[in-house]
Structures are given as C-alpha cells and as structure tokens.
Amino acid sequence: MIGYKTLAVPGPTNMPFEIRQAMDVALEDHRAPDLPEFTLPLFQDLKKVFKTETGHIFVFPGSGTGGWESAISNTLNAGDKVLTASFGQFSSLWVKMCKTYGLDVVNCDVTWGEGVPLEDYRAILETDKNQLIKAVLVCHNETATGVTSDVQAVRRILDDLGHPALLFVDGVSSVGSLDFRMDEWKVDVIVSGSQKGFMLPTGLAIVGVSQKAMDAGKSASTPRDYFCYANMLQMNEQGYFPYTPPMTLLRGLRASIDMLTAEGLENVYKRHNRLASGVRAAVTAWGLENCAVDRKWYSDTVTAIRVPKSIDANNVIKTAYHSYGVSLGAGLGPLNGNVFRIGHLGWLNETMVLQALGGVEMAMRDAGIRFLPGCGVGAAIEKYTDTKAPMELAAE
Ligand SMILES: Cc1ncc(COP(=O)(O)O)c(C=O)c1O
C-alpha cells in the first residue's frame, strides 16, 4: 500500500515521533549506578498523570490484563466477596478472572451499552451490613462498547455508606485521555497499559496502588511473585526493579509523560472530548446508532457504531482495512458483526479523525450502507470549525 495506514483502533494508538526517537537508543544497563537518576523522577512524574501524591505507581512488564491480575493477587484471598458489573468484553473478562481466582463474585449483569449501575451498587453495598465485600470493581471506560462510567459516583456511594471496600478501577482506555483522579476519588488500585493514552507500544502494565491496598496486601495470602507490589516497591524506592525492566519502553514512557504534562492534562481531556464530538456528529449524520445507549455514557476515547441489521459490520472492517488501509476496531463478543469501533485517543488531531471518517465512509458504501457520501465527514468538520480548538482555549 502506498501512503500511511490509518490506525483507528482504540489501542494501540498512534505513536508520536518524539516517543519513537526517545526509544531509538542503545540498550542499556538496568543495574547501572546512575539508573536512579532516570527512574526516580520517572516514578514521581507518573504520579501527575494518575493525579496522586500518596499512591505508588508501579510499572510492570505486561499489559492491562496483567494489571488486573496484580490487583486481585496482591490484595485479596480466595473466597473474598467482590462487587462487579459486566457490560462489555473487558469488564466481563475482569469478572471472569475474579472467578478464576476463587473470589465470591456478586456481579451485576448490565445491558451492553450502559455502564456501572450506580443504584444497584448502592443497594448491594447497603445490604452488606457485615461489610463482607472486600473490593468494588469499576471499568472506567469499557472499550468494547464505548461507555464511560462514573468512578467518582461509586466513591461517593462507598463514602455515604461508610463502606471500607477497596475501589479497583480499570483505566486501560481512560488514564492519560479522560479525567481521572486517583487521590480525589480514593481509588485503591488503578490499572492502565502503555498502548492507549500513553501512546507507547504494548508492553507495560502501569498500576497505581494506594497505601490502603498495600496494607491489604499484608493479610492477603494469594500467591504472587512477578506482580508483587511489595517486592516492586522495595526495589523501586532505590530506583531499581526486581527483574530486568523494559528499559526501551521506559525511555518512551519518559517522553510520553513529558508530552502529556506539556500539553496539560486538562487540555488533553478537552482535546479528546472535541475529537469525540466530531465522530459522534458523523455517526448521527450517517443515521447510525452509537452502541452507548445514552449520552451520559458516551466515551471520549472510543465510539462503537451499530450497523443496520442487514449488514455485517465485519465487512465494513475488512473493506476499510484491505481497500483503504484503515484499521477499525471489531465488535467483541456478542457485538461481533453488529458494531465497528473507531478509536479516537492518544496522539490525534482533527485532520487525522477526518481521515479515518473518510475511510469509514468509503468502506460503509462498499458494504452497502446507504447515506449521503461526505455527510459524516461534513458533520465532523462543522463540529470542529464551529467550536474552538484546544490551542485557542488554552490561550484564554
Ligand atoms: C478497558 C480495557 N481493559 C483491559 C484491557 C486489556 O488490556 P491488555 O490488552 O493490554 O491486556 C483492555 C484492552 O484493550 C481494555 O480496553
């Protein structure tokens, strides 16, 4: 194929040149005497992205799934009760993992397209008079359906009820892209990965852990070793790791944090909202439906788009890929064939979104979806030109 491919999946995301260059270094000694001069400020500055001063941020070789596992194995025992909700592929997979670990799962089965059911969470926690529920799980941004849940509201429920359960959050497709505040929302474990908001290759599970979760680990006897928080903390405090760290990715992570903080996290969130609004305008103009059933759930990092019943969404995805070099996200689990997903997170601007939308329009026409060519792209253009760009907002 001649020309750039368009990566419009919700992770991995586009990698900025600054990050590529930062990783284009000779391999280095991970036990070098001066390594802490690099790692200690890195650990410190990572806290800014998670908005924590009191938590520890651990960088494990791995991916988001490893981060989920670390949350369970470091703080809980088999038989412990946890409150969960499944409303998409990723929230469901974390629930499945809880069961694999022998946890006693109280799960709210929610329609895919909705998010964490706050009233159900409240009702279940209210009846838990003996406070047997040890952890409450929230998938902040369900990447399979394009649904963002209200983490802060879950914290409020726990506080209202004086419930001491740990709060675990999956922030794989939210941290570094959507508003997330570890300290303010008193999140005990926040799981993220390198290949989405951090704009890096896959390979890191980046996990924020509160002191309360570290303390819970002292009485948790679930076997853990590779993902052990206490071992990691002990070595990290001296600027080192318990095993060989992926130094090249850590160099990239340094550049990523610098880019996010230079733009300013609030501007990063605004940019994602603005880009998402263009995609949503396009969906409406095409006459299609967002998989998220209510605007309060709309995600600013990914949109899952339902195709008409007579159309196989996989045809749109395959045509976009083979004919136009555009990678779109597939419908996962029961949504396969019913939706395609556009990722709009990471290192992205308006023109890149329009390029993806143009590719989607061509693929949808080829797949037999009827709409006025250009109407989605046009609606996004209107959105972007009728509202102020982040740079103008920052100048105000
Ligand atoms: C919300 C969410 N959680 C967890 C995961 C799993 O992460 P990974 O694929 O990095 O293991 C993903 C992956 O896309 C995700 O989107």
Could you please describe the fold and organization of this structure?
- The protein has 396 residues and is an alpha/beta fold.
- The chain has 2 domains: 6-12 and 264-395, Alpha-Beta Complex (Aspartate Aminotransferase, domain 1); 17-262, Aspartate Aminotransferase, domain 2 (3-Layer(aba) Sandwich), CATH 3.40.640.10.
- The chain has helices at 17-23, 35-50, 64-75, 89-100, 118-127, 151-161, 211-218, 229-236, 247-263, 265-286, 313-324, 350-366, 375-386, 390-395, and strands at residues 6-8, 56-61, 81-86, 104-109, 133-139, 141-142, 147-148, 166-170, 189-193, 204-209, 289-290, 302-306, 326-330, 339-343.
- A 7-stranded mixed sheet has the order 2-10-9-8-5-3-4, with helices on both faces. It has a 5-stranded mixed sheet with strand order 1-13-14-12-11, with helices on both faces.
- Helix 1 runs antiparallel to helix 9 (247-263) and helix 5 runs parallel beside helix 6.
- It is globular, with a radius of gyration of 21 Å.
